[in-house]
Structures
1.
Amino acid sequence: MHVDLSSLRLEKDTLINLLTSKDQESFNYLYTKVDGLRKEFVGDQVHLRGLIELTNHCRCRCAYCGIASDNTAVTRYRMTKEEVMASAKRAMESGCKTVVLQGGEDPGIKKEWLADMIKQLKKEFGCAVTLSLGERSKDELVAWKKAGADRFLIRFETSDPVLFRRLHPHHSETQLEDRITLLKSLRKMGFEIGSGVMIGLPGQTYESIADDILLFQKLDLDMVGVGPYIPHPETPMGRSYKEQPPIFVQDSVETAYRVIALIRLVCPDLNIPSTTSIETSEEGGYLKGLQRGANVIMPNFTPLQYRKLYEIYPDKTCVNQGEVSKKSLTKWLASIGRTISDSKGFRNKCSNDHRESCRKRAKC
């Protein structure tokens, strides 16, 4: 595989060929080129977004998720305002300019309660606020945007409708098109929007991953996160995976790196995190992701007593680690020539002509 960015046509067949290539040396060359493209568009600063896992209550029964409502082995929790504010303070002290409030699709998170929380975060810290709380009503979303929320993240997990139904077998209302429609609605409300997929799902194909990448481009997302699928033993998919894993995509970690690189190639100006699931799957994965096109890290500031209970997948790398400091993060990023961003990390959207001309000039 010879990679020539000046003539590369980023169509589905090309993406499949790149995803399945056995020529690792040439792909390493592509990683170098893509890292240059990342530098051209988003620079050497890494955006730190402090993750606070607000609640592990969830009304959904997704077949892959460890906090699904039918997992009775989970001890449920819901953080108080005081706990959230204390966690956000630690995140700000560590260099974060964004707080990410993440949780299950929890009816106990009320519209007014969260709106007040968003206002308090904005007033006290002046930070950006990102929400990742599943599918919520229009009334709730409008109220949270009015309160000051800046971004909303909701993964569509796969662009393959058949595979999507396997992930959500008990929720007829949770269709792939509904998820796509919600992302478009969030954009119209004024949110920056983010989504993502899992790599290595049972039954997932390289063709569907190529479709995922093209859908990211079509939706013109502001942030895209990808990571390896890690089976949870207390889920239907996890149990069937253990009994007879139907593997289609080989080496989900390497494929996740390739997907990060190809997203940067297709959508060079968006924000891409190097995810916890990559680091959980491979020690040093955070830094490798940053060297393959990513420019965001989401350190976890959930209190330790709750962090271990937010088990979407088992053995998360952050569960038994203390919180990181700004000093340690600065040193860690300096090892690959990167620095902590002092901005809130909103997407600096470029024109299609600029994206294409940069890629063809091969400055990357």
Note: The longest strand covers residues 45-55.
2.
Amino acid sequence: MSLNFGRTQLAIPGPSVIPDRVLNAMHRPSPNIYHGELVDMVDTIFPDLRTVAQTKHKVAIYIANGHGAWEAALANTLNRGDKILVITTGRFGAGWGEVARSMGLETPILDFGMDADADPQKLEEVLKADTNGDLKAVLTVQVDTASTVRNDIAALRTAIDNANHDALFMVDCIASLACDRYLMDEWGVDVTVAGCQKGLMTPAGMSFVYFNDKAETFRQNTSPSFYWDWQPRTNDEIFYQKFAGTAPTHHLYGLRTALDMLVHEEGIENVWTRHETIARAVWASIDGWGINGAMRHNIRDPKKRSNAVSAINTGPEIAGKIRKWCEEEGGLTLGIGLGLAEMGTPEWDQHFRIGHMGHQNPTMTMAVLGCIESALLAHNIDHGDGGLSAAARILARPASQ
């Protein structure tokens, strides 16, 4: 007999839970794509996307996943043969570097492993050693979805400035936008890439590239293809060029509703605070269970953890048993240990991730944590008491109070 009936829940680090309001907004006939309601609505989306990233600069929308945004950012700023520095703190910085190499770019790596954030001092040393200015850009992620570390973007910008280096600073916010605090202009980021399927609570299929005046200067020396060129996409006069053809109509209706919820109803500061509170509740449970059991955070320092996703390391087979029980018996899908172990190896079953991004509230959070504790009990896995009550105490006293 199984209890797995009723509504299932995703707790993976994207795609995230889609609000019913977003789904309802998308459930409609196709609109007129030439003029009228759709065209007028799209004009309202760009200011709100800028608010989410805290920038006054331009943003282009692509019908693509995050890999498309990676390629668009590179295609508009760099040329084959250019050398860029790729900072890796997990799987996804490395992934961006792989895309860059496929485009003919040279990609020396500054690798900090799977359980540490980027060291600004080491970045400064590398850039000071680049006396000829060969490095045209520095690429990093704010949050690596695999390791779940959060890099200090402001400190990395300071390192670039201290080195007196002119490299373009490019940041992947795919896992963190509208979850972790991000201040593109204040922190001196030149190019930001993001996707719609995580903090922005919209089905996967759209990505975004933000770029400032310095990045536009780089664009003048490149020849991006017709589709990836961001210049026509930020042209206010010709609607179809914003999408290099037909607009992703229903995704846009969903995004409009998601932005209403995040920007106009909750407010981006409150969105960040909510994510911080829910993250601390998740961490409190992990800490509680880990007292007498083989369970710990992949990122030990809470100040360096993402508020969007948590990677958990366990003893042999434990994570695999938790994931399997939660999905088959509890109706809950947890994230795999992407990048933390190779699939098919014994170590694969020693890692899992909890996505706590986007459309989240205490009921949903406690359901995820309660299901995990049930899995621990079902398999007689040693763990400390009080994990759920520790989370409840955090949720009872939000960070803003």
Note: The radius of gyration is 21 Å.
3.
Amino acid sequence: MVDTGLDVERIRKDFPVLSRELPGGRPLIYLDSGNSAQKPTQVVEAMREHMAMHYANVGRAMHALGAESTEAYENARDKVAAFVGAPDRDEIVFTKNASEALNLVAYAFGNPIGEDPRFRLGPGDEIVISEMEHHSNIVPWQMLAQRTGATLRWFSVTDSGRLDLSNLDELVTERTKIVSIVHQSNVLGTVNPVAPVLARVREVGALMMLDASQSVPHQQVDVAALGVDFLAFTGHKVVGPSGIGVLWARAELLEAMPPFLGGGEMIEAVWMDRSTYAPAPHKFEAGTPPIVEAVGLGVAVDYLSEIGMDAVVRHEHELTAYTLGALGEIPGLKVIGPLDLADRGGTVSFTLEGIHPHDVGQILDDNFGVAVRVGHHCARPLHLRFGIPATTRASFYLYNTTAEIDALVRGLHHVRKVFA
């Protein structure tokens, strides 16, 4: 394997679960990081330390623990802002996950208490998504269209698994209010071209959002350089904890958006008949936030920053090239998605002729300790587009090795023998 500048063996020692033996003495081979990444000891210990020694509610208590907890929580916001290149740390809103971040933005459109015309939506207006979206970037926009009478439209996907931009000018028009697409597909591995879509969005005066749940963990993402209006990702895919996600949005848009949830902390003043709201980001963080999870997320992005996202990209590029070559030698196996490495991440989904993905996954786990994802990966419309009910998905991260890919390949040959 080409030296990518990543000391994988040292990194693996930070993830205790990767040394675990499954029943029967099988070593764990974890190829499901597209679903959820494993957590390094540094993240686990930081969360334990905060919970054990520093925990209190944030922004309220006038005592030492409250001050320590608030400082740790807000320091995490600083770290996340730096990690994604946010110009202003107050552009980082902590949410429960990426799904909540996407819903938060969808809620802002067509909300009767919103006053900004950019967020007014009704019959005749249009929302544009794509056929390769995760359900989290489909269902909120469907609900918005149903609520407002707006029309939902979408980009199609080419046979090679790329976003079809051939009708960009016809799809994104003066009627378009928001375009929300995935940055990197959780099924195909495709990294979508942002610049041409954004240029058209700006031309018609619309807004643009990226679901970056798969891109932020695996490549260097700079929101200022991308130039979009909104971006969402989730903590558990960036070697951080579950229960916390991130919405980044341009400051002036956050200021214009109505709050998503009402309660403590998001207010400025409350009377019995009305309330005024705190400035962003606190306007969108009602109630007790995920304090310990934020601390863990801050340590997670520190961990990735210290390793270097360029090294992560190179490592995953080599793993993906190795995997595509190896899978290409298996009879009856078809990769769903790009077969070249251009604008492609470390997620490979495939079918085995005549064998259901659920059977593939079960045999890989039971006999080889290989953990992969099977099903439609919360992207059923994409699978319908390719005329298949489900796929098997192997997804890689900084702690995976070519030896683990070899185990996957041996397992797939065994699956074929079982069903011969």
Note: Residues 45-305 form a domain with the Aspartate Aminotransferase; domain 2 fold (CATH 3.40.640.10).
